[in-house]
Amino acid sequence: ARLVVLVSGSGTNLQALLDACDDPSYGARVVAVGADRDDIEGLARADRAGIPTFVKQVGQFTTREHWDRALADTVAGFEPDLVVLAGFMKLVGAEFLDRFGGRVVNTHPALSPAFPGMRGPADALAYGVKVTGCTLFVVDAGVDTGPIVAQQAVPVEDDDTVETLHERIKVAERRMLVDAVGRMARDGFTINDRKVRFGR
Ligand code: GRF
User: Fold this and answer.
1) What family does the database annotate (predicted)?
2) How far apart are CA 188 and CA 184, in angstroms?
């Protein structure tokens, strides 16, 4: 399966996918990496792996819709089977979802439906939960609200900071992402009234 991965930061989830794809039995390869900003480690990781990259900055476009369309056009050019949002910090829009709807997955560092949005680990810590985690879901028009593909639970320690908690989440998240994307790539998946099932 052909994967296009979108990132906005350090790209450790991307790196986990790149490493997994080195195994021919994994059944997927990253054909391009895109970002919404320059000079991030995620793009450097793609460069080191010899994978084409592209950047689409919202500020370069007159409207958000134009950005969304340009992003969709560029992604479409790589003919992805699956688009993986791995720490991508922008919401893709209606046109993007029309083009790739049902084939866009996003990883979120909280146990959906709890703590959606940009501050999942911080919100979990502030709330005082004892268990949080990460979620892989199929992107829909909402914010972190799509059908859930996989989840992993992660304990919150009493002395956690946002950083220590998020790092612990990311260890589980990388494994969750690699396992689930591999299954989707090899076995396909279907969505029946929000329930995601592997297998064609
Ligand atoms: C991940 O935890 C992702 O869920 C969140 O930001 C983090 C990105 O980490 N949105 P990285 O860029 O993959 O290292």
Assistant:
1) Belongs to the GART family.
2) 5
Whole-number Å distance, alpha carbon 163 to ligand 1 midpoint, is: 12
CB atoms within 10 A of CB 76: 14
**Distance in angstroms (rounded) separating the CA atoms of residues 109 and 165:** 10
Q: Is the pLDDT of residue 101 over 90?
A: no
DSSP state of 147: P
Quick one: CA torsion of 104, 31, 119, 66, rounded to 10 degrees? -70
pLDDT in tens, 110-148: 999 999 999 999 999 999 999 999 999 999 999 999 999
Regarding an ipTM greater than 0.95, the answer is yes
Peptide bond preceding 113 in cis form (omega within 30 of 0): yes
Bridge partners, residue 136, by sequence: 107, 150
- Token pair for 176: 């969750």
Question: Rounded to whole angstroms, how far apart are CA atoms 146 and 91?
Answer: 13
Centre of ligand 1 to C-alpha 86, Å, is 6
Give the position, in ligand 1's atom list, of the atom nearest the Cα of 89.
10
